[in-house]
Design brief:
Strand content: 25-35%
Shape: globular
Oligomer: single chain
Number of domains: 1
Helix content: 10-25%
Order of helices and strands: HHEEEEHEEEEEEEEEEEEEEEE
Structural class: mainly beta
Length: about 280
């Protein structure tokens, strides 16, 4: 499509004296067209020696697919949360990459959107297309399969596959601090958030609430989320080298595991790697 437009432009210029040559000091009119209308060349031609022109750079995909997996290990509580994944416009180089994102389930924002106070997604940002604000995708995960004689409980899994985004945020409440809700455990029958039990003391009275298998869990209780400075979520590492706990690579498998009891203060742990070999992230 871009080449057709280029031919049309050059045809117009031919009528006016021809397209500029590479030695011309005038501005290339196609570059002006690209900047004005957002077009990008998906293919170019090159000639080596006396050979015929060849097409290079055609049908370029945008990154390898990433798998985002959620595992609920709670024996009686449903996990309720959501995720948003997005790609900045500056990350794209060609129209084919844009087409690859759209074919992979992304859409473009028609206006800027604030995600709490943590992020502002600008007009034109590509978001994985869910029904919520800025393409947020709701995630509901049934309780783990109960253990039987000779077997262990099995976590319930939900997975999504999408072209690797720039950022991923798993959250329930628009984040304004690390006390914002990341997910909740709810009753599978009523849908209500599980109430925390109160532990009684001998002779009456109450001691404290048992928060280990109930209620809302905060962003601070996701083991790799950054709270100081406030920057929750996971981030694509395009530079390579040493990965931080909250970073991932192109084509990774990322797993959020939701726990009924805290592990070092966390009720959700994040691992990254391939499907065959997962690498634990350390906070």
């Amino acid at each position: 499509m871009w080449l057709v437009r280029l031919v049309a432009i050059c045809g117009f210029l031919t009528a006016c004296g021809g397209c500029p040559t590479s030695t011309s000091t005038e501005r290339n009119p196609f570059l002006t067209y690209v900047e004005t209308y957002g077009a990008a060349l998906s293919a170019t031609t090159s000639t080596t020696g006396g050979g015929a022109p060849s097409v290079v750079g055609a049908a370029q995909a945008f990154r390898r697919p990433l798998t985002l997996t959620f595992v609920n290990t709670h024996p009686s509580g449903v996990v309720d949360t959501s995720f948003i994944a997005w790609v900045e416009i500056s990350s794209l180089r060609t129209a084919d990459q844009q087409d690859s994102l759209l074919a992979g389930g992304y859409t473009q924002l028609t206006h800027s959107v604030d995600i709490g106070t943590a992020y502002t997604l600008s007009l034109g940002t590509f978001v994985f297309n869910g029904p919520g604000t800025a393409g947020a995708t709701p995630v509901t995960i049934r309780p783990a399969t109960a253990a039987t004689s000779g077997t262990q409980a099995t976590g319930t899994t939900v997975s999504f596959t999408l072209p690797t985004p720039d950022k991923i945020l798993v959250y329930s409440q628009p984040p304004v601090s690390c006390d914002s809700v990341a997910f909740a455990f709810s009753d599978p029958l009523t849908g209500e958030v599980l109430r925390c039990t109160t532990l009684g003391l001998e002779g009456g009275g109450e001691q404290f609430a048992d928060f280990s298998a109930c209620g809302y869990k905060t962003l601070a209780q996701v083991d790799v989320y950054q709270c100081d400075p406030f920057q929750p979520g996971l981030f694509f590492n395009s530079a390579g080298g040493q990965f931080k706990a909250n970073e991932y690579d192109e084509g990774d498998t990322i797993t959020f595991t939701f726990l009924p009891a805290a592990t070092q203060g966390a009720f959700a742990t994040v691992t990254r790697g391939t499907a065959a070999t997962q690498t634990a992230s350390s906070p």
